[in-house]
Amino acid sequence: MDSNRREFIRNVAVGTAGVAIGGMASGFTAKSYSRIVGANDRLNVALMGCGRRVSAYYAALQDKKNNVDVAYICDVMKKQRDKVGKDLSGKISGKATLVSDIHEVWNDQGVDAIFNAAPDHWHAPGTWMAMNAGKHVYIEKPCSHNPREGELLVAFTKKYGKVVQMGNQQRSAKESQEIIAEIHKGVIGDVYKAVAFYANTRGECPVQKKAPVPEGLDWNLWQGPAPHQDYMHDIWDYNWHWYGWNWGTAETGNNATHELDIARWALQVKYPEQVDVEAAKRHFLNDGWEMYDTMDATFRFPGNKIIKWDGKSRNGHKTYGSDRGTIIYGSEGSVFVNREGYTLFDRSGKKIKDSKSSGSEAGTALGGGGDMTDGHVANFFNVIRGTEAKLNSPIEEGAVTQMLTHYANISYRINKSYKVNTETGRILDKDGMKLWDREYQKGWEPKL
């Protein structure tokens, strides 16, 4: 690797001018220093959050073409970080240190990039704090807990000049890229509508009750930027998604992000003019699930374009022949696209082309992972190095898609439709704007 490339990696990824000859550069630990010297274009990465999603990165981290060292495995629950450490032992480059406190990772200037797979309320704050510490970030969906955090992420990315990729990995699917390009060229005429959908069979959710903090869990750090409260049974594990709005973003933030992103990409739209939502809790009415589990949302855009969301968390009926995907309608035909590929139809409904992926990206299985994630992660690494020109899902695009999920959730929470300023994205309703931001735990407020 030439000296210019090495200097680029150091300046962009670490935010320092280099390493002093015969000694340590300021702020580097002995461990991080040893990883940099002679490492060519190797990137030092850290895993933040070791829950269900983290295993989706394993293949990319083990791929020698990606040339990375795993420097840290961080999770506030001991048994989770221990499991990931065991999973990756002997299979990755780098001697990963297991830590509970992400601040240790941020403070190590030898870390180039962080995979932020913590719970939703940590996504945006954990990302802007990482950027402040000089790190690039692969941020899982949803990229934000509320609309204001999306705005802040874009602003922080511009301020720090870091590479931030959102984890809506279908943007890296070759079949999706191919058919979206064809749609933009007019293969189905003038596109006017997309229907995005998701169906799952989630079961009953325990009713919350006070309980001791589980052994090995740093409950205060798990809560982090969200207002703190007493521990309730089973909160820290997956069910936090459904226990109110302090941590989660409901199923729409959890899963609609992916399909709504494909819809918005195909229709080439940004902010809607109007949002209409019907949503309610329809199943296991006396269980602990506090949000809707069924939602129909309609987003109306300039140019008479429409995106509809059909989300069923606890009814697995495959209304459209699949458990998730997007149908795009045009004046001369239609397209069905999901993680398995796409099917192109003419206006009469005759199949014109069927392109199926040879990959293995998961559908509704918890955690997921597969070739799309592998490609998405590789794209992230390559943009950091400068060997690829652009991200497949830069945060500037991801944050706009995420707004659709926030609009839907806000409409449900205030129980009414509303209009949106299509230039700024701001909600033209005073009740809706009350939910634009959130309250933070004292001391965790964002400072741009």
Notes on the protein architecture:
- The protein is 32% helix and 19% strand.
- The chain contains 13 helices and 15 strands.
- Helix 6 packs parallel to helix 7 and helix 7 packs antiparallel against helix 12.
- The longest helix is centred in the last third of the chain and has 20 residues.
- It folds into 2 domains: 168 residues, Rossmann fold (3-Layer(aba) Sandwich), CATH 3.40.50; 230 residues, Dihydrodipicolinate Reductase, domain 2.
- With 448 residues, it is of the alpha/beta class.
* Rg over alpha carbons: 22 Å
In helices, the fraction of residues equals 25-40%
The succession of helices and strands, N to C, reads HHEHEHEHEHEHEHEHHEEEEEEEHHEH
Strand content: 15-25%
Mean pLDDT comes to 90
Task: Give the arrangement of secondary structure elements.
Elements lengths: L2 H12 L15 H7 L6 E6 L9 H5 L5 E7 L3 H11 L8 E3 L2 H6 L5 E4 L3 H13 L3 E4 L7 H14 L3 E3 L7 H12 L5 E9 L19 H5 L26 H18 L6 E7 L13 E8 L3 E8 L11 E7 L2 E6 L2 E6 L4 E6 L14 H15 L9 H20 L3 E2 L10 H4 L15
Parallel strand pairs: 1-2, 1-4, 2-3, 4-5, 5-6, 7-10
Antiparallel strand pairs: 7-11, 8-9, 8-15, 9-10, 11-12, 12-13, 13-14
Helix pairs in contact: 6-7, 7-12, 8-10, 10-12
